[in-house]
Model the fold of this input.
Amino acid sequence: MADLDNKDQAEMDPADMEDVEEVEEEETGEDNSKARQLTMQMMQNPQILAALQERLDGLVGSPSGYMESLPKVVKRRVNALKNLQVKCAHIEAKFYEEVHELERKYAALYQPLFDKRSEIVRAAYEPTDEECEWKQDEEEELTVSKQEEMKEKAKVEEEKKVLTVFKNVDLLSEMLQEHDEPILKHLQDIKVKFSDAGQPMSFTLEFHFEPNDFFTNTVLTKTYKMRSEPDESDPFSFDGPEIMGCTGCAIDWVKGKNVTLKTIKKKQKHKGRGTVRTVTKTVPNDSFFNFFSPPEVPEGGEMDEDSEAVLAADFEIGHFIRERIVPRAVLYFTGEAIEDDDDDYDEEGEEADDEEGEEEADEENDPDYEPKKDAKPPEECKQQ
Done:
C-alpha cells in the first residue's frame, strides 16, 4: 500500500500539488482567524477577565521553581544582588527626601508669584499694561468697546473662577454637587504648605475663603502624611514616597447651612396599634466638603474595602491638586492644561482605531467572511 501511495504521489500532477498546498495554507489562515476572533470574544467577557485576574493575583509572590533549580553558587550570588537592591532602595528613599527639601526651598520662591496671582484673581491688584502684554496668535487687536465688554465679562467670571477650574477637571467635577457651588464661589485661593525641615514628610492643602454665610472658617486644611522609606517586609516594592494617611479639619457651619448633612422624613407604622408616625432623621449628604472629613486610618492599618476606596481616591485628588492645580491654575481655568492632559488619550484612541482597522482587514481577507451575515435586518435596527 505504501508503494502504491508513493507511486500515486509521484504520478500526481505538479499543478495538483500546488492546489493541495494552497488548501493547506487557506485552512491554516482560517484556523488563525478563528482563534483570533475567539480570543477577542474571551477578552471582552468580564467574567473571564475577572477569573483571569484572580488567577494572576494568586500567582503574585508564588515561587516559579526557577530559583530552586539554580546551582547553590548562583543562589548565593542572587542573594548578594538582592542585598544590593535593598541598599539601592534605601538610597532612592534618601533621594526623595532631598527632593522634598528642594520642594520646600522652591515653594518659598514660587509663593510671591502665587500671592500676586491671587491678588489679580481677587481683583485686589490690577496688573499694568506691561504685565498684560501677551503674544496673540493671529487674533485681532482688541478695540476699546471690546475691552469694555471683556471687563464686564470678567466681573461675571470673577464670581465663578474656582468653579470653572473645578468643573474643567473631571477628577474634581465628580465631587461637586449643585449645593456646593454657592459656597465655592467664596473660595479665593488654594495654597500648598510643606512640612518644616527635620519634620516627618508631609504637605498641607489650604483652602482660603472670604467671609460667607455658610461657615465661619477662613481657611480649611487637609494634611497628607508621607513616607519615603522601603517597607522592611517588601523592600523591592518601593517606588518613591507614598501617602500614609491624611487629616482634615472641623468646619464651623452656620446653623442650617451644613451641606454635608441632609434631613429626611420616614413614616413608621406601629406593629401593634397600626398607627403611623413621621420620623425625621439627619443622614450624610454627598458634598465636596466631605473632602475635609476623610476616613481615619486605624493603627493596625486594616480597613474595609469601602474606606480603602475612599482613601485611595482622596490621595489621588490631594496629589493632583498639589502637583497640577496649584502650579498651573490659570491653564486649567482657560482649559489649555486640559487639552495637554487629553493628548495621551488621543494617542490611545489612534492606536485603537489602528487595531479596528486590522480587524476589518482580517475580515476582508477571510474567505468565509460574509458581510450579509453580520448585518442586522432592518427590523432589528429599528428596534434599537
User: Anything to note?
Assistant: Residues 72-121 form the longest helix (50 residues).
